[in-house]
Amino acid sequence: MPHSNSSSASWRIAIVRALPGLGDMLCLIPTLRALRAAFPMAEITLIGLPGIKTLMQRFRPYIDGWLEFPGYPGIPEVPLLPSRTMEFLAQVQQTPFDLALQLHGSGSYINSFTLLLGAKQTAGFFPVGQACPAELFLPYPDQTSEIWRNLRLIEWLGIPLQGDALEFPVYESDCQEARTLMQRYGLQPDRYLCLHPGASISNRRWDAQHFARVGKALATQGWQIVLTGSQSERKLTEAVAQRMATPSINLAGQTSLGGMAALLSQARLLIANDTGVSHLAAALAVNSVVIFSDSDPQRWGPLDRQRHAVLVRPAPDAVLAAAHQRLQGVAYAR
C-alpha cells in the first residue's frame, strides 16, 4: 500500500458498506478517520444505501462522495434488478478506483461485487475456511467488535490507526432544536434521563413493561424521564408512559437525528436497547445502559464498559442497579 506522501495523494478510494443502520455507519467512523489521516488528499467514496446519504453528509471531512448501492445477489437490503446492477458496474469501471475496500461483512456475497468494481487494488474480508479471493483480503475476524473488525483490515493494509472512538458532529441548528424542546418541556441539563424502548428489529426490544418499571423507579427518585424514538415507535413510547403512571415526556417522533443527538448530549443517562441510539451515546460520551435481547454484545456493545453498561436479557432490578451506578459514580462524569 502506498503512503500519503506518494502518488496516493490523488487516489480514488471506494468503500463498499451497504448496511442500513445508524450504528452500522457510526462503527465505520474510526476506519474513515484512519483513511483520511493516511490519505488526506484522496477522494473517498462510500457505496451505500440511500438512507445513509444524509448521515454521511455530517462526515464530509472523511467522505467526499456517495454512490447508491445498486443491489446484488445475496444482499437483501436492495431489491435485485440485474440491469441496474450491470449499468452501475459498467459506469464505475469506466474510471476505475485506485482502491476498493469491502467493509460490508464476511464477503460471502459482496466480495464478487467489490471485485467487479474493477479497482486497481481491492481489499476486504473473506469467510474463514474459504479460498482467499485476492492478495489483499483478510480472513473475517468474527470474534471482535464491529468497530475493530473494520479497523483490522486497515491495520492489515499497513495504514496507521487513529483510535477507536466513535464520533457524531452536532451542529448549532441541532442544539437550537434541542433547546427549543428543553424549554418547552422544562428539561434541565443533567437532570433528565432518556429511555429508548424501541429498536428497528422487534426481537431486540426489551419488554415495555420492564422499561416502564425502570422509568417509574427513576422518576420517583426525582429524575425527569424523557421517552425517545421514531414516529413509528410512538405507540410503544405511549405504552411505556401509560404503564409508568408517573410524569414523563414523550418526544418520540419529535426530533431529527441531529436534534436527538443534541438532546441526548445534555442527558445524564440513556437506557436503551441495542439500536442506533446506543451507538450515538457512545459517540457523544453519554453514560448509558444498553440492553441486549437478541443480538451479540461482543460485536455491537460499546467499547467503554465503564461508562456504558452492557446487560443481556436482564431483569429490571439489574438495569436499575447499573443505572444507579452511572448516575452516582464519579468515574462516569463527563
CATH superfamily of the largest domain, by name, is: Glycogen Phosphorylase B
With strands numbered from the N-terminus, the spatial order across the biggest sheet is 3-2-1-4-5-6
Give the CATH level 1 class of the largest domain. Alpha Beta
What is the fold-level CATH name, i.e. the topology of the largest domain? Rossmann fold
Give the distance, in angstroms, between the N- and C-terminal Cα atoms: 39 Å
Number of discrete domains: 2
Return the structural class.
alpha/beta
> Globular, elongated, flat, extended or rod-shaped: what is the shape?
elongated
Known CATH architecture of the largest domain:
3-Layer(aba) Sandwich
Beta content: 15-25%
Number of alpha- plus pi-helical segments: 13
Supply the key terms:
Rossmann fold; 6-stranded parallel β-sheet; 16% strand; alpha/beta; 13 helices; 2 domains; 334 residues
